[in-house]
Amino acid sequence: MEDLLFLTQRIPYPPIKGEKIRPLQILKYLRQFYNVHLGCLVDDPRDLEHVDTVRALCSSSHFATLDRKRAKFSCLSGLLTGQPLSVTFYRDKALANWTRRVLAEIKPRAVFVCSSNMAPYVLDTGLRAPVFLVDLADVDSEKWRAYAEAGTFPMRWVHSREWRLTAALEKRIAREADWSTFVSPQEAQFFAKLVPGYADKIRAVSSGVDHTYFDPEWSGADADPPYDITCPNYVFTGTMDYPPNVGAVTWFAEDILPLLRRTEPRTQFHIVGSSPAPEVESLARTNGVFVTGRVPDVRPYIAHATAGVAPMRIARGIQNKVLEAMSMARPVVVTPDALEGIAAQPNAEVIVAADATAFAAGCELAAGPQGAAIGAAARRRVLADYVWAERLRDFDLLLGITAPTSPQFIHAGVDS
What we know:
Elements: E1 2-8, H1 18-30, E2 34-42, H2 51-55, E3 60-65, H3 68-74, H4 78-81, H5 85-89, H6 93-106, E4 110-114, H7 120-123, E5 131-137, H8 140-150, H9 155-176, E6 179-182, H10 185-194, E7 202-204, E8 233-237, H11 243-263, E9 268-272, H12 278-283, E10 289-293, H13 299-303, E11 307-310, H14 320-327, E12 332-334, E13 351-352, H15 356-367, H16 370-385, H17 388-391, H18 396-399
Parallel strand pairs: 1-2, 1-4, 2-3, 4-5, 5-6, 6-7, 8-9, 8-11, 9-10, 11-12, 12-13
Helix pairs in contact: 8-9, 11-15, 14-16
């Protein structure tokens, strides 16, 4: 087999968040056709125990340990060099040297880079492979733009700068890479409008969900539920220091939950996910709000939920939390932004609501007789359109893969 260099910003295991789930499934897919040489960073000491698991998937690998506190300080050098802070945060000299050696000595047939902030590891070497693909997933610059428009000084200035510089990096990627890929047609089309001269090199390759792991027939569903199921329970899953997630749960706890508790005072809201920010932890002081932190398995929370909720007001790409709840045949209440990239029929396969009053009404709809039917339809949609094995075949043409495939996937997990 030929060689492929694979770069991603975080060790793609355990698969507990979107930026790990998608790279892991892609890595598992590509190793069927290539000798994969993986370079990544490990920014959580708890993830070091998984290095051997990931190393076993690769022909060679380099794991750079990243101290987040030190990286936050050192990334300020970007203010002097004119680089995005999100690039300098993930910059590691040893990983850069390893990448250069792989490109120069192994001469891989293809390079696959996950996220814009890892692309400079290849772009800055001046070395290229016959196929160079950057999986941008989302248009990150738009996320920074949204932060800037919603923020106040000084962070508004920081986010505006990040928006401008990330947009410039994305345009460089569009120019120098053979392919730029995104998780949804909407993201791909939006980016194509930003870089019209390179639209023919932009493609959408949707994410999927591990339907065998997030399965309504999962045997653990009969175990003791993690909360009182005699009252309505709404569940949000995600990495809880991610600003869009923080904003989403804050909005639900402060504006939507009180509306629900007027009708049913015992209604509960469960925020399930790692690294809860101080603002999230403070929500646990609100009646009916529970903050779990990182859990070993998110499925018990989803399986027993009245509904999954995704009240995202800033969102890019596909929301794994939505697909996971749909896969477990639970009704899901979402904002329009949270449904981007998911071809589910509103109010038949998911419930869509744009404001607090409508969102509360959607939650009450999910709690009623129609909830089970909506959840069952959601599961059918997942099986039809969001099985990983089928989604990732869209990379075949871009990478020149022609062999028949029977991919095996590592189960995806906790907070995405």
